[in-house]
Amino acid sequence: MSTLKAPPELSYEEFLAWCDEDTWAEWVDGEVVMVSPASNRHQGIAGFLASILGLYVQAHDSGTVLTAPFQMRLAELRRGREPDLLFIAKARRHLLKKTYLDGPADLVIETISPESRLRDRGERRAEYEAAGVREYWLLDPERQEADFHHLDKHGRYRLIELDPLGIYRSQVLPGFWLKPDWLWQEPLPAALPILAEIAGVYPQLAQQFERALGGARR
Q1: Residue 202 lies in a domain
Q2: Whole-prediction pTM value?
Q3: Residue 17 lies in a domain
Q4: Cβ atoms within 10 A of the Cβ of 115, count?
Q5: Where are the alpha helices (DSSP H) in 20-174?
Q6: Rounded to the nearest 5°, which phi and psi values hold at 17?
Q7: What CATH number has the domain bearing residue 170?
Q8: Helix and strand tally (H, E) in the chain?
Q9: What is the pLDDT along the chain (218 residues), one digit of tens a residue?
């Protein structure tokens, strides 16, 4: 973890120059806000989602999935946020800079920790809505709750309910769906069988592939 001391008010460009890859921090209206390091459980969920989302997006050539620490600049709001995961659609890849996304992502995922609960449900939700983040997932492992928000035609977030099978179907990533119950399992499920289920592939094929990979590594 970085031992850098947060400087006084600075521009976003100065913030990017100051903040190294080991520093977990956000930029809020000229001020640096330090972010607590993620827990093991938090990192596990983020890694699981990064795996299945990354492979799905790659297979469909639909965009880019990035994980923290990576900045999302919301210039009009004077914010530089660092979501746990973000997806940027292929048509908007030109907004990707070397160390930050210059505009709102199409999908933002935040995994809530006790210290971030109010911020993620309040301040960040309002910011992402105002900035035009099309889809916002809020995942709370401690309470085993997942909220999925999507911008409506008026630019306001609407809470999307799960279907009768307990499935959420993304509106930003056509064909992608998720069972939030997967996220609360300990240990978390393997990514390949889950991706096979999402894709409608016979799950045993993915399991055989995993076993083959395991044998090749020995």
Answers
A1: no
A2: 0.84
A3: no
A4: 10
A5: 40-60, 117-118, 125-131
A6: -70, -35
A7: 3.90.1570.10
A8: 6, 13
A9: 344 555 668 899 988 888 877 677 889 988 888 776 667 888 999 999 999 999 999 999 999 999 998 999 999 999 999 999 999 999 999 999 999 999 999 999 999 887 777 677 889 999 999 999 999 999 999 999 999 999 999 999 999 999 999 999 999 999 999 999 999 999 999 888 898 889 887 656 656 656 665 655 55
